[in-house]
Structure formats: C-alpha cells, structure tokens
Amino acid sequence: MTMTQGKRANQAGKILESNVEAILTGHGYFQVGNHVTKEYLLTAHLLPKRYAKQVYIGAGIYNTLLKVDFYVVGLPCIPTGLIIECKWQESGGSVDEKFPYLSMNIQEYYPAPTIVVIGGEGMREGAIQWLRQQVKLNHNLLGVYSLDRFIAWANKSF
Fold first, then answer.
1. What CATH number is attached to the domain comprising 107?
2. What digits encode the pLDDT tens for the residues 125-142?
3. This prediction's pTM
4. How many structural domains comprise the chain?
5. For residues 70-104, b (16+ Cβ closer than 10 Å) or e, as one string?
6. C-alpha angle with apex 119: 115 to 122, nearest 5 degrees?
7. Quick one: which of 27, 105, 120 has its CA closest to 69?
8. What pLDDT, on the 0 to 100 scale, is given for residue 38?
9. N or C: which end of the chain has fewer CB within 10 A?
10. Can you list the residues of the chain whose pLDDT is less than 50?
C-alpha cells in the first residue's frame, strides 16, 4: 500500500517529536501524560523534572483550543516551564506558511517561554529566517533550532 504525502509528513513529524522526547528523557525528564491540561502538568509534583505531550494550554488567537507538542517543567533556568513545538516539512507544503500564526499565539497566549524545533528540507529559507527574526521581537520565543542545534542548547540548559 502506498503512503500518501500527508501521511509521510505526519510520520516524519512524529519522528522529529520522538527525537525531542529522547533528548528530554536523556536529561532525566519523565513523561506524566498525553493530552493533559497545563494545570495538571504544573501541579503533578511527584516528579520535579517532568513533561507532557500534546498539552492543552487554552484558547489562541482564533479562540480555538491550543495544544502544544511538549510542555516541560523543572528547568532551573526557566521556572515557569518551557514549551517545545516541533515543525517538520520534507517537501513544499504549508507548515512554514503557518509560522505567523504560531508566532502570534506564542507571543499572546502561550503561558511559558517557547522553543521551536524545525526539521526537513522543504521549508522556504525566507520563512525560517522570518521565524528566527521573531525571537528578537517576541518576548516568549526563546529560539528556533534545527534538531542538532536543539541538542546543543539542551546539553547546556537541561
């Protein structure tokens, strides 16, 4: 059976997320759930270094429910927690067209500082540059990293 382009992209995005998850667990973070609320994650004090995937954080700019890929709690340098969003685009598509929406939500509605991890070779270079420029303008966007740069950041920060 042939896999559709959308299904391949979804699978590749999950692989990027699993790499980020491996980095978190490699630095001693424990998963406390999937599809949980930020309130649950923030009050689950049994594990000081914890994360959850697909965390509901509230409404966004379109007044629709927002989920983030990872919400990490227990970083000494970021006591409010860290949100990690993963964006993958292997070939031409629409992921990079959604960067303004992502940036606006991060600035206005995300409850914690955020890092965006990007992967794949299909994003337009101008879109990546634009998103990286938002770090200077968006108080809540800490960085936009490729997977290897995120590993380097995590090794210093976790």
1. 3.40.1350
2. 789 999 999 999 999 999
3. 0.89
4. 1
5. bbbbbbeebeebbbbbbbbbbeebebbeebeebbe
6. 130
7. 105
8. 80
9. N
10. none
* Gap between the Cα atoms of 33 and 155, Å rounded: 24
DSSP 91-114: SSSSTGGGHHHHHHHHHHT-SS-E
Condensed to tens digits (0 to 9), the pLDDT of residues 24-52 reads 999 999 998 777 778 877 777 778 899 99
Tokens of 48: 């000081």
The Cα–Cα gap between 132 and 10 comes to 23
| Domain span including residue 33 | 5-157
Per-residue tokens: 67 = 């989920």
Q: What angle do CA 61, 121, 16 make, to 5 degrees?
A: 65
Rounded Cα gap, residues 58 and 74, in angstroms? 21
Helix (H) or strand (E) run with residue 60 in it: none
d(CA 79, CA 94) in angstroms, rounded, equals: 34
For residue 14, what pLDDT is reported? 87
